[in-house]
Amino acid sequence: MMADLKIASIGGSTNQAGHNLVPRNEAMPLDLGWVRDVRVNLSGVERRAATLPGRRTVKKDAQAAWLLKAITCIDLTTLSGDDTRQRVERLCAKAKAPVRPDLLDALGMADRHLTTGAVCVYHRFVKTAVAALAGSGIPVAAVSTGFPAGLIPHDLKLKEIEASVRDGAAEIDIVITREHVLTGNWQALYDEMRDFRMACGDAHVKAILATGDIKTLRNVARASLVCMMAGADFIKTSTGKEGVNATLPVTLVMLRMIRAYQERTGFKVGYKPAGGISAAKDVLNYQIMMKEELGREWLEPHLFRIGASSLLADIERQLEHHVTGRYSAFNRHAVG
């Protein structure tokens, strides 16, 4: 059983996602020898990922605690073509109060300031989100660099990052140029990522690898490593717009690279799965893998985020079942 998280231990929001809790990744020179030496045991990865749900489980109070912790790590997201200011404001209201007060009271959490880890929006809505979240301690994350394809000119990517930072974004989710990975041009990927990191200034940068587009787990491992060498604060699976987004095999490979990078440099890099994580039972698998591979600290929002929109509704629904013994309709747990 993985029952070492208790409801009483779940803290409230961490101001600006606790960015000051770990030294920032200061990057390192590109080590092509290390990158080229990376290998992935495909059958081993698939076996570990496939057997995880059957070998590890949490139930009852422990499950409620893990789900409450997951809420604090959610980047509550809206990235639709029909987004409006009103939708973003509703999303921010939900981020500040993600669980119904009656459920928090029944769980003994009424006195905790429980919030999501961040709100993630397009650049157009950064100012709207910053204003709506003022005083809450919840950071705004902006997707940038020509999200989701990342195929606009490089100088425009940098200008977009700088504009979002000026508007108040504390985190920038960038998309890499997939071509650099697919052609093995690691120097170009490193240089691009270094430029993104510099343009972000004090804002933390999450590097989206678009793992569904870069084809192989070895590419995933090498791209993860290069982005960390160039100063990424987080590595992230997907934009949520690819045909295949976050998966447990991809997660395992990325976590192993985070561990290898930490062992060599001493820097802790965060991880963000995104796209397709919509059920509470799925997020538990990601949390368990995080803890087993990297340790307890990687269950906190300064090192773990989940890019999601509908996930919060299912978590709240599961918490209501824990309290009442009954499931309710999803429309009673609307995101915003």
Automatic annotation (TrEMBL):
It comes from the Bacteria. It catalyses: 2-deoxy-D-ribose 5-phosphate = D-glyceraldehyde 3-phosphate + acetaldehyde. GO terms for cellular component: cytoplasm. Pathway: Carbohydrate degradation; 2-deoxy-D-ribose 1-phosphate degradation; D-glyceraldehyde 3-phosphate and acetaldehyde from 2-deoxy-alpha-D-ribose 1-phosphate: step 2/2. Gene3D superfamilies: Aldolase class I. Belongs to the DeoC/FbaB aldolase family. DeoC type 2 subfamily. This is Deoxyribose-phosphate aldolase. It comes from Dongia mobilis.
